[in-house]
Structure prediction request, 1383 residues.
Amino acid sequence: MSEQKRFQPSNRVLVVGGGMGGIRAALDLAETGRDVVLVDKGFAIGGLMTQLDRTFPTNNCDLCTLSPHLSASGRKLHIQLMAMTKLCGLDGEAGHFKATLTTAPRYIDLMKCTGCGECFRKFPESVRFIPGLDHRAPTCMRYPQGTPFAYSIIKDERTDFAGLAGVCPAGAILPDDAEKVQEIEIGSIILAPGAEVFNPQILDSYRYSRHPNVVTSLEYERILSASGPTKGDLVRPSDGKRPRKIAWIQCVGSRGIQEGSVPYCSSACCMFALKEAIVTRERFYEDVETTLFYMDMRTSGKDYELYLQRAINDYGIRLVRARPHSVESVMEAGTPAGDLLIRYLAQGEDSLKTENFDMVVLATGFRVSPEAKDLAAKIGVDLNEHGFARAGSFDPVATSRPGIYVCGMFESPKDIPDTMVQASAAAAAAAKDLTPLRVVAQAREELPPEREVAGEVPRIGVFVCDCGLNIGGVVNVEEIAASAASLPQVVVAETIGHGCSRESLEHIQATIWSKRLNRVVVGACSPRTHEGLFQEAVRRAGLNKYLVEIANLRDQDTWVHRDLPSAAAAKAKDLMRMAVASVRLARPLADQTLPMNKDVLVVGGGIAGMTASLRLADLGYKVHLVERLKELGGVAKQMRRTLEGEDVRAFVDDLIKRTEGHDRIKVWKQAMVVDHSGMAGMFRTGLQVGPQMFYREIRHGITILATGALPHRPDEYYWGRHRAVRTQLELEAFLEDHSEDVQVWDKVVMIQCVGSRVPENPNCSRVCCQAAVKNALKILEINPKAQIVVLYRDMRTPGFEEDYYRQAREKGVIFAAYNPEARPVVEPEGGKVAVRFTDPILGRELTVSADCLALSTGMIADEESTEDLGMIFHLPRTPDGYFLEDHIKLRPIDLPIPGFFVAGTAHAPKTIRETIAQAQAAAGRAQTFLARDSINLGAAVARVYGELCAACLICVRSCPFGVPFINEEGYSEIDPSKCHGCGVCASECPAKAIQLRQYEDDHIMAKIDGLMEGIR
Amino acid sequence: MENFEPVILAFCCHYCAYTAADMAGSMRLRYPPNVKIIRVPCSGKVDAIHIMKSLEKGADGVYVAGCLEGDCHFKNGNGRATHRVEYLKKLLDEIGIGGERVEMFAMSAGMGERFAQTATDFTEKIRQLGPNPVKAAPQNQRAAG
Amino acid sequence: MITAERKPIEELIQSVKPYRSILLAGCNECVTVCAAGGRKEVGVLASALKMHFLKAGKPFEIQEITLERQCDPEYVEQLASNLDQVDAVLSMACGCGVQEVARRFHNKPVFPALNTKFMGASERQGVWSERCQGCGDCVLGYTGGICPVARCSKQLFNGPCGGSSNGKCEVDPNVDCAWQLIWDRLKALGMTERYEENLPAKDWRPAGGAGPRRIIREDMAL
Prediction:
């Protein structure tokens, strides 16, 4: 065994860029047992997201969701992390690349630096630390939980190196450190260099560089952030006063034609500006007025429209459709007073208005950095006209050079969930170029032996997380810790800042050792998301992982009782008392494991299902693909071309051919899922197949749901009743098949948002704006004389779709906004239809006789199918019938039940490009499960105390899975490897002879007692 | 009695109601802080004894929140819980505590709004009912004596 | 098993009302199995009674215990140490258990918490029905394994009465006619000739007609 080399040089992946995308891709690869070299030019990984205060649409703080990923990145044995390193050259081809890496000197030995900060205290000018709004650059630890957790030194600032080296207690300072160049062998590359935030200095009229109260949205995030320069206090830079009136200006530097602007849309700015405004209102409510000046509100992601509605209705955020040209200083007695003046012409109004604001936030978009462009040139990756890596719709993460993949902002401007999706897709694609993994000897982290705690008197350590302002901003965490300190057997109770940061976890571990703790309580966020992290932490400190209990102080207390801080504090104390009472009784438990079934079930044979199936089958897994219709292809079969002009039909036909011809894919057509049981790694699903409805049982380890959505069929505007009225999908086919009819059209009207963004279907269908633009351009190609009017609410053409929207306008397509209160009215007029609408610029009613009326009807969830499958698989859905993912921001592909993944429009409306990326990503995420040889069932299994058992059979009869039986000794026995852990037997047992581990009766009683103690 | 703040325990299934409660948090919905949640793997795990003891120890109201009908991760744990709660309602009526102090609710993981609404409505109902007589009686006596 | 069900709570309250503290004793035998008097029911009833008296403002304490069996003196003896501290015992055993506790602790009032019903079997989860009346002279061998004593409302020994219709009993249409069952079973066994044989008049002395019954195993009861 020892001869076998685990680390295969050319069988690893180089990930360039340590932001969210790079980290996700590296983690996905590491979880499948692949080796990864993760390089970042910065001093610590984390990217842009670490500087944000919170992210939409959960308004969660980022550090708490990101830092577990970061510390995971730091510790994964398969990941070699190289900060301050660039990729400088590349030879060879996919599967056998030779990459040249250059590492800048840090002057600090990472192995020795403990991050104590002694050097920074003594020589602050030459040691890099937190920046915030301070323009001093370069910087190192951009936020307090940096990975690697080490400082770095700016050599230019320092002549007395010996003196500096002398202050380091760890002897980690290396005065003679120099640039290192090395060549490594790799199989494939993932480019995730991210993007830069546009610097609005060049747009002089916004006074960004001249007025301190004009800030970019990223700077505003830093002001709101608990780890920022004002520690989360909202004050304006000029005079430190709390602003009362803040304006956001959208599209600064994006969607523009003036010098310094870029023509594309930066995609994420509408949502982040809304988020900043909501967070501001949430914290300061009536005290701060928030106004957004926008061109189109582009909230087309999953449930983003609901977020927009909440922003308007629940938070009172004022939206003004206008693009202010400039920001002026308000003068008082001849000097600037700090306030700012905006002149604007709002849509629907005829005169220019002026309004004063205390602060102006510029929603600046994204650019590819010159360094990233340079890198692309060096390694031979084509860029598009905007400088982003060129990738096609049908393989959205593949660059022009085989073996090199791209994810995140470098592909196109996008938000975090889309970046996460592409990262997993890129990881799956990159794995394809490596030789199949045969060496299974997985590296294991060396853990200290578990300490025997049975018989010891409980010594409980209590740690209260402030979670930035999420907890600490509502209740006084010191007070919560102090109250827990008074409870019996609590040895230590303290606050720990961000509990999930690497620093805090290490502190908890150190405290466990130093105080000989044998139980731990963490007051933090939800155990649903963070229990595993804290369990691992206590395990690394030599305790069984079930000796920690988490009190949900954030999601179930401070987030929901912000308006009642003293009641929230009292509840926090109650929750802590309950947790302490329960952890006192915690017992060390062992996890159950079972061998993993590596077959895959994919439900839905559209583009998403076929793409995911092929990816996994190509990697060697057997795939069962279930389609309820007679043919594969799904809704895409009705489409002809993408917005960019690619041939959808040829692509789908080829996909079908490859899927049906693949020897590891079994396609089940006319098949319905009828039953399901088991858990990840050992699922069983029953199908009824073919017209005869034969029953087949499939055993599989994971399940991918790709059941798609339905084109909406409207019952308004004479659709289906007048031949001039078509949906965009029908129009697309008509344009290809009947161009001679199109040549004689005089006028065409398109109505957007038919059946979307309405009370019955509140979300945006995402694809209709680009479909309208696509069809409008096609009509003009056939018949340049046609007059086209598009009646819209917001034109949502994010990213490079904006180019086509601009083209359409340039070619004379008229885009006229309508109000949902004054929807267009359609009347038949012989072979034509008359469309009456209010022109927003003329402000009066117009009527157009249209030869063709195209309705942008969008998509609706396939309720019938998601409802059935949701029931059979026990998966939750959103109120509008799409599958609900595990975490809308960071786990957009994983469903809440382990072993289930979602791809395509079963998740939310999306384009073909996005669908393919998500399908590839689902295959990537699936692989992280399939690479394991065993599945962990956890420790929550039922245990029978035989001496109490009356052999009454009540458990035998009540178990939903038929597990208990009466054994030879005459009492009930439950096989822990078959137990699903529901606890029904335990609660039914009339003799109280069964206990469900982790949820024993005495634990629950202790929680009840713990609560009541404080109340009595 | 106007300052009566009921103590309410909610036994929430990990797969639905507990997640819905977290969702209510993500959505920054508001509900009364009176509700304290105990997480269980399935509403079918909630033992009659746990509900009874909660009330006996002074809770003013107890509810069990499980998955929607037919959605139980473990087939029918939520159905069992519903029947158990019905049984206890009768018993509680008989001893004069009032069966309306316990309730069974169903929701799915995505229903943050329903979680908050349920918590608000139930708290309001218990507030109307007044303190658990178990807790109130000795106090009244003390006041009288 | 011996089946039982809990008495109405009001009756239980009346019986224990005069006392300040009681011992609530369950039994881990038949009444556990029929979900009437095991550990769980003890817990639920204790809670209910405590709440009732707390609400009424009456000081009242309950100790809970569940014995392996209340009908064996060795197990009952385990109550001895608890009994000093209580004024009365409320037993959740069948009538046998209640009496055994009362016999052992002659100076403590003992009250039944259950109504003992019958000797029966589980029809399915949560449903028990009568199968045997302990007549002391079993005829099941003649009747295809179905007891006409316990399961025929009229205890007929030679075929059904005129009230059997569609296989159901005229006394309670939810109850199967025992003789219909006997006939079906004999037919299935190919033993319909048994039906023709007249059973002689039953001797009811072993059924208790000659006073309380005992069993003595001479070999064991040395």
